[in-house]
Amino acid sequence: MLSGRRRKGYPAEVEKKTCTTKMAESSEVAVERKHVENKKKAPKRYWEETQNATKKVEAEKSSDESKQENTDKEKGKLTHDEWRKKKKERTHGKFISGKTDPFPGDAPIPEERMKKFQRGNKLEVPAGTRLKLRETLTRSEAGSDLAQNQSARYDLLLTEDAGFLEGEEDEDTCTISQEDIAEAVDITSGSKYFNLHLTQFGPYRLDYSRTGRHLLLGGRRGHVTCIEWQTKNLMCEINVMETVQDIKWLHSEAMFAVAQKKWLHIYDSSGVELHCIKKFNDVLRMQFLPYHFLLATASATGFLQYLDVSVGKEVAAIPTRCGRLDVMAQNPYNAVIHLGHPNGTVTLWSPNQKEPLVKMLCHRGGVRSLTVDKTGTYMVTSGLDRKLKVYDIRAFKPLHSFFLPAGASCLSLSQRGLLSAATGDIVQVYRDACGGAPVTKPYMAHRVRGTVWGVGFCPFEDVLGVGHAEGFTSMIVPGSGEPNFDALDMNPYRSTKQRQEWEVKALLEKVQPELISLDPGMLGKVDNATFEQKHKERVEAVGYDPLAHKKFKPRMRKRGRSSAGSVEKRKNKVAHEDQRDVIRKTVGERMEKEKKRKESAKVQLKGGELSVLDRFKKVG
Amino acid sequence: EELSLQDMCVSVQEGSEDERKHTKLLEAISSLGGRRRMKQTERSEASLQVSEFSVAADGAGEKVELSDLLGTMEKTPGAPNKTKKQLKNLQNRKDTLELPLSKQETEKIQRGVAYKKSSREVSRWESVITQNQKAEQLVFPLRQDPTGHKRMEQVVAGWKARTPLEQEIFSLLHSNSQPIHDPVLTPVEEASIKAMSLEEAKIRRAELQKARALQSYYEAKARRETRSRANCEVQKKAKRRDFLKQFEEMVKTDPDAALEELKRMELSRMQERMTLKHQNSGKWAKAKAIMAKYDHSARKAMQEQLEINKDLTQKLAVPSEDEDEEKNGDEEAGALPDFVNDPEPILDPVNPWMRGKLSKEEPEPEVEASTEAKDEDLEVQQQQEEEEEEEEEEENEEEKLLREFERKRKLREDEDDDLVPVPQEEENQIDEDDKDEEEEEEEEEEAEEVVSEFNSLFNRLMKSNTTPAVPDQNEGEELLDEGLVRVQTMEDLEALRKDRTNEANQEASVPATDTPTAPESASEPPNKKKRRRKEIDLKKVLTKQATVVKVPLAPTVLEEEEEEEEVHTEQAAIIKEAFAGDDVISDFLKDKRKQEEAGRPKVVDLTLPGWGEWGGLGLKPSKNKRRKFRKKVAPPPPRQDKKLPAVIISEKRDASVAAHQVSQLPFPFQNPTQFESCVRTPIGQTWNTQTTVRKLTAPRVVTKMGAIIEPMSREDLVPKQKSNEAKRGAAILLEEKRERGKKKGSGGKRALQQKKKKMQKQKKTKE
């Protein structure tokens, strides 16, 4: 049984149609295969869902609250909310009419959802802390608790579910053809499967805009086109008359960058060339970091360059010394650039360091392609050794290793973690490839007309775009896109006005490139470097030592008073200023000691009766 | 007294003022005569005009006494009785008035008092200020008008009933003083609502008054109680009872302490036997013995004392455990019917339905408690009766005593009038000393009485009831046994022992298996380099067996067009793969080693050739010297990639982020984790819901536009809600009093000591 993804709020799309074609009856049978999802259960109601859980939670809560009450009493003061809560408790959910509230208190929030919004660990305030500190800590804790609770509660508003594909009893989902799917789903969804036959200008690379509405295609032989792919509205189509290595949308669908034979060019959506950036030459691959407004390029000369597109400045140019860089990916979690190299290593780069943050050996042969998932947890690489490897990029440890018959040339991860791998002219999509048990079968597979040159999932849509030698194929992959979008961040349905507004806001919230590092939470941590280290860095940054002593330069005097001798004399006057005090002190101390010693000796001498022969005694 | 004097002065002054007025008038009249006469400066003598400030005594030559001056007071009808009385008292006073304090001292005292007062005044604000400082948000002005509906008149000025109908209605309403406006409240009600705060204040004041009155009453009572002997007796009894109760509890809860208590009793018995204090041999006893023929009370006292002696000297039957067990057995036999009815305690918590009972109950303590309670009740009743009797008698005694005292006092006063007071006082003191001694003796006796009483009670208890501690222990043992197999035979015991040994063996064996691993880990450092090479077995890592993925569609990799090219590239790739593999790994390893080397701090060699030895071409500084001048640097912290063979993690510090980081811990925080936890939650809209953002970013101070922010007034100090708290406060105060009273009652010996102290204080005050 098949079911398309559904989404509310967009008029062109029809609500989910249950498609009972030829395999409608077989849905009851439980499917053992892991990668195929079970039939969707009826939506759980809140009373069913957590009755046991609520009881438990309530019991805990009540005990907690009773404890809290005690402490509150001790404190002798209550905030308004607490007071209200207490009042509620006092009344035991009873109304004035005498009826009892069947669900007293706030609705419980499931644990996992709370976990989803947890930020860091709670801090236990130790017993002996000062009052002021205790207050600030408790207040901030309360604030973060509130934030977590509210977010978890509002998660309820994300009503949309992801789509899925389910096969018949003995049917592999990967055998279901795109045509069947397109036939089964509603018309709009069905129209998302299409082929563009572009045989002239060679293999195509592609890029979807961040909203998922616009598609950019770049043919190897100079054909560049951008399409509003859902409406099939052609925005522009040009031929740059040069080799096109890669194409990329910039922050919005108004501009895109094209890596041409020699230089990097920037065009607007109507195909007008805006810039030709000659600092960026021989670019092979590009990545755009949307929150930093940085365009990262990897060139054939081994340079990794960062272009700030908001001000048009080159932020950093790093000679990687790793040869030709034609494998590149970004980690959306921390904006670190991953580069794959022919010696089987993958290097991680930030614009702030001239050396790789991390260098890891992934394959025995060269790395052909790599991609990183949205949460920054997994990295998937494929190499010439025909292996597909999944790494936990937080711990830099390999998780899985798959052997593909003819290694994957292009990789892409969707928003919901589906992995597409192109082997020759076949595009395979894997589900749960990253976490969980190792996968033996693909979720979906599709043969395109030519060798695949580029794959990319469309954000917020269940669509995988495949650029190949014979053009472009858009295929339907149920469950790949994120069903709920954050309209403040990226709104697929935004108007031009909204886009403009968003642009301004995004520019205001632009993250500085200095903040890119492996741990994006670095900014919230205290820098505990030593003074020396800081000073060293300062000296490096400024170019001189601001704390160093200035060398004394005697003033030029007239009438022969600036003779070499007198200058030397004057210099001597201030020489070793810093040491003088110490010397003076130590000398003084020594003198004092000497004096005392002599005096004591004298006293001793006087103490005894002086004889005539005493004059021959040695003093001291 | 001072007041009366002042009054007098005023009256005298008034007289003189009249005279002055009179002369002034005369002068005015004489000046009316037209020509101005040069007024002669006259000198008047003090002897002629009586000044109010100094009474000239040159006329009579004798002292003016107060009585002379006050003689006229009797005759003047207008003078109030009070002043007369005061003056009389003044007359009777013999001693001279005390010298007033010096100016400095008085000022000092005044300053001290003023400081106290003002500090109290100021400190009243402290709590409010700290509260405001602590407050998350302050809304100014602090006192805001109550929100709610306002009447039409308050909002709109000059609204009148115009139509005749309206007028008629309003006149009607007015005449009946009915509510005219929407909020249906009569003016009276409204007034009452407004006056609520005052009422509350009144109520509060009344409560406070009540509390104060009660407090004073309790105090007075306490004072009385400490004085009257009867009450002493009552308290003693109560104490004894409490002591006994405590002891019983102690036996249950803390047998050791109980034992100690018993020992102490034994000691007191020994003392009694040594000293024979409560025998007839004492001085007091002999006197009483003489009196006993005639005086009933004396006889009774004698008997009491003898009884005390008996109690004290009685040997305590310390229950040995054997006896207890026997008694237990006896008791069980005796008390069987009671226990039969009660549900049996279920010993197996794992399987409570084994005994055919559904719930676990603990009947035993209840039974015991009930029996004890009965016993206690009986005892209490008896004691109360006794006490009542005693009280009556003692009251009689008291009256007698009081009468005697009064008589003595009168006698003394008479003597006072006749004799010089000094020796008298001495006598008094002596008397009091005697009394003190007597009292002390009495107190000691009381203490001993307590002990003896307790002894007797204890003995009774021992006879009637078993000590509850022993069954408790038994229970405990049973509880220990429960859930496990009960050992009944010797074979079982042996089996148990075997089990234990087995367990021990297992435990021993586990570490034995562990131990070999530990030395291995310990022996790692010496051959570290070798180990590392083994550790980084990249080949293993990279050739980790991969799961083969089956693809249903056969990949038609080779398309006809690019077939040859593809073949070539593929082959080349395969060749490369075959040959490059080892190379890649070794390269990587080299790279990693290099990085590690670079990260390691270098040894600084400071040797200078030629110093202290021969130098020159071909000569190297000696080993010794080189060792001497080589400075070793502390090893760096372990690398992050120490345990990751296939990864090189850069150890370089990222200074660019550091520029944006917090480098110094801000004020209230004591360590970085606290600060970091405070900062960890973002407050922006991007990450939070609207309400959260609003709450998290609420301003500290909110002011109302156009409103005047006045300084805090005194009324702000006492918010309205506090009336409730005040009530509670008064109640708490009272309770505290009561508790303190109780504490006095409880704890036999300590209470006695307290009493002693009190008595001593009283003596001091008397002195």
Description:
The complex is a heterodimer of chains A (620) and B (767). By secondary structure, chain A is an alpha+beta fold. Chain A is 24% helix and 27% strand. In chain A, the strands form 8 sheets. In chain A, strands 4-31-30-29 form a 4-stranded antiparallel beta sheet. Chain A has a 4-stranded antiparallel beta sheet with strand order 5-6-7-8, with no helix packed on it. A 4-stranded antiparallel beta sheet of chain A has the order 9-10-11-12, with no helix packed on it. The radius of gyration of chain A is 36 Å and the shape is elongated. Residues 1-39 and 49-78 of chain A have low confidence and may be disordered. Chain B is built from 29 helices and 6 strands. In chain B, α10 runs antiparallel to α16, α11 packs across α13 (296-313) and α13 (296-313) packs across α17 (421-464). Mean pLDDT of chain B is 67; it is low at 319-373, 416-433, 465-487, 503-536, 556-565 and 720-752. Chain A: It is found in: Nucleus, Nucleolus.
Percentage beta strand of chain B? under 5%
Compute the separation of the termini of chain A in Å.
113 Å
**For the terminal residues of chain B, how far apart are their CA atoms?**
28 Å
Largest interface: A-B, 93 and 76 residues
Mean residue pLDDT of chain B: 67
Unreliable sequence segments of chain A: 1-39, 49-78
Mean pLDDT of chain A: 84
Unreliable spans of chain B are: 319-373, 416-433, 465-487, 503-536, 556-565, 720-752
Morphology of chain B: extended
Strand order of the largest sheet of chain A: 4-31-30-29
Quaternary structure annotation: heterodimer
Percent helix of chain A, as a range, is 10-25%
Largest sheet of chain B: 2 strands, parallel
How are the secondary structure elements laid out?
The complex is a heterodimer of chains A (620) and B (767).
Chain A (H helix, E strand, L loop, with lengths): L1 E2 L14 E2 L26 H4 L1 H25 L4 H12 L19 H6 L14 H24 L9 E2 L12 H7 L2 H4 L3 E4 L6 E5 L5 E6 L3 E6 L4 E7 L4 E6 L5 E6 L2 E6 L4 E9 L1 E7 L4 E6 L3 E6 L4 E7 L7 E5 L4 E5 L4 E5 L8 E4 L5 E6 L5 E6 L3 E6 L4 E7 L6 E4 L5 E5 L2 E5 L13 E4 L4 E6 L5 E6 L2 E6 L19 H13 L22 H12 L21 H11 L2 H31 L13
Antiparallel strand pairs in A: 1-2, 1-3, 4-31, 5-6, 6-7, 7-8, 9-10, 10-11, 11-12, 13-14, 14-15, 15-16, 17-18, 18-19, 19-20, 21-22, 22-23, 23-24, 25-26, 26-27, 27-28, 29-30, 30-31
Chain B lengths: L1 H30 L34 H10 L5 H12 L10 H21 L2 H9 L3 E3 L11 H4 L8 H12 L11 H8 L1 H32 L1 H25 L1 H21 L7 H10 L3 H18 L7 H14 L1 H6 L21 H56 L2 H44 L4 H13 L8 H33 L5 H8 L2 H5 L4 E2 L14 H37 L4 E2 L17 H6 L1 E2 L15 E3 L5 H4 L13 H8 L10 H7 L4 E3 L10 H4 L4 H24 L2 H19 L1
Parallel strand pairs in B: 1-6
Antiparallel strand pairs in B: 3-4
Helix pairs in contact in B: 9-28, 10-11, 10-16, 10-17, 11-13, 12-13, 13-17, 17-29
